[in-house]
Amino acid sequence: MDPVFADGGFTANDPKVREQALARSKRAVDIARALGTERIVIWPAREGTYCREAKDAKLAVEHFLEYINALLEYDKEIKILGEMKPNEPMDSCFAPTAGHFLALAESTIDPRRVGVLLESAHAVLANLEPSDEMGFALALGKLWGIHLNDQNNLKFDQDKTFGSVNPRRAFSQIYLLDKYNYGQNGEYVGLDVKAMRTQDYENSLKHLIYSKENFLMLLEKVRSVDEAKLEELRANRDYEELDFYLTKILLGCD
Prior knowledge:
Structural class: alpha/beta
Number of domains: 1
CATH topology: TIM Barrel
CATH superfamily: Divalent-metal-dependent TIM barrel enzymes
Number of helices: 9
């Protein structure tokens, strides 16, 4: 929130600001280690522009890479999780998706210590399917954290109660995570949700309660899926039937 970072941190044009941003991140690494974790999340939502010519896009990505390398060099055990976001508060952010960040990760001094934290709403803001983004990172062994929430199309980052906007989209995420036993190797699932902006104080924690309840209800439905039937429908390329089968499960009609 410091005004010095109005132009971003590690992609700012001013080298002194980039130095300050790195110093703060090193302090965050120290705090993380003191708390007993080897993971730190980068949420580079201010690393972008309102006007494309305000920064050199090539140099900005190079500064991004320098920043990650400096942290990896600073602590030989720290793992960096990129929580990518396409926009807000900046109009357009650098490395806006998991794919962008993981491509960047491969050019770092130690790609083994760089992965992603995926947030449902951020994928939607990029006009992507959250479960596809999760599958992409899972296939590469890089899905190290998840923030579940929901989002009403391409608007501001709403962080709505998980499953409240699009239950089918939420179902797909849980289906993938449960199928591949996500969480068995130290990964975690968080609920990055906010109370509605017009919600009164007395009811302001319901978004947390209902996000968890929606997750557990959908998990029960996910585990009721007949995998053999899914495989048969896939083999027969009967995708309309597959779609209807899952719709009936979601509606409690199967």
